[in-house]
Amino acid sequence: MTTHLPPYWLRDNCPCAECRDQRNGQKLFQITELPDDLGIAAQAELDGHLEVLWSDGHRSRYPLEWLAGAADGDGRTEADKRLWAAADFAHGIPEAHWEAYLADPAEQAAVLAAVRRSGFAVLRGVPAVERQVLAVAGTFGHVRVTNYGELFDVRVEPDPNNLAFTSVAITPHTDNPYRDPVPTLQLLHCLDNSATGGDSGLVDGFKAAAVLREEDPEAFAVLTRTPVPFVFRDRGTELRADRPLIDVDPLGRIREVRFNNRSIGTLRGAAGELEAFYAAYRRFAAITLRPELQLEFRLDRGDCLIFDNVRLLHARTAFEKDGHRHLQGCYADLDSLTSTLAVLRRRAAALDTIAELFAGEGAGEYLGEAVTMAEHMLQAGALAQAAGAAPHLVAAALLHDIGHFRGALHGRDLMEGRDNRHSDTGADWLARWFGPEVTEPVRLHVAAKRYLCAVEPGYRERLSEASEYTLGVQGGPMTGEQAAAFAAHPGAEDAVAVRRWDEQAKEADADTPDFEHFRPLLAALMH
Length: 527
Prior knowledge:
By secondary structure, the chain is of the alpha+beta class.
């Protein structure tokens, strides 16, 4: 039992539809609306859940696995990062090819996860055309527009307002520390790098800060508690943010690093405080320059670097003017990247659940046909794909009979003469992840059989023995009135298409792709 849990915490986390919006999880009540004398009237553990009757008559049901879960966070502190030194990437840096990243949700998730955990990743083979960096940012979030515009060119400028627009070496730093909030992601896309020099460098600022904390705890403490004025001004802009070089959360975990020698304004304070700050500042700066912490690599034409701008310090070696070096960059934010990654993972978990049904119950017999349930559904999806059907129809054909699976959907045996309404059951279950363009053909595919048997001469005669039997269980051919109503339904055409593939997908030993073949298509359709 969980009587040790505070009642207000438990009630505040009630997952029922009366307490939370089932679409987005937002609470539908105020904490002050709960009674002052709230208590548990009764509780019991049933079917892996804790069921609670509250003193005000409300009932709650909590999964025991969820109640036993460990505390988690937003993934922004050192606790959820892989702190690294250069040698940790001796066998290669996190990277992926642009086309694979676009085509495979798992590849995209791996890239975004690398940015979250290690702070960066490189996409290779990104088309080296102007403004393409904006398209890269758009795959996971939104561009943060700054005084530099929606994008900026990193190349030698005749009248630069930033050292980045020269050919000189740039030491490790973070960008835009004078903004609050600071852009938390930066992208740099290489359009040309034929000059001698101009290699890129990264330093894990969290690792450098952790080294400082270990070697000089007091210096670390000084840098976490001293607000530093970061300032930028030019003819059209004046920005300032007073923030510490190392920001920690209430538990003392490193959460953010702002480090930019060029942008530190005049720090005011007592002489002793200034002396302590500059000693700590110099110590931290020296750590960021240690060779073992500096990861150097070259961005070539078509490479796009994505990195965490409140964790990683980036640098550049000087370059000669014997060639061209042109990068285009933009800023974005970690919250959008994190959101996209979470959705990709949520979709992957849903697809894993469906895949398990195909591999498990799908291996069972299919209504006496010569194929298993999984083989039947995979064949239907393959037939739709071979016919050049739209992705949503391929998905509907593939998933049309998922309502027959017992374990997840509690179906009944259609062959015992009871209509298990598997089309409705399956469509309702799939609606958690797919829109009506997929679920409605699933919902209507039984009705489509009844319709075709009523209006298409010879169709009924082509039904298999099992399909003829289930036709009777499901209501038989439609009446004229029913057929007219079905034909007028906006989803009728798609449902009929799925029905035809359904009837054809019963060939024993047919060469059929497995579920993984359809996984990217399904992932692209999920909401």
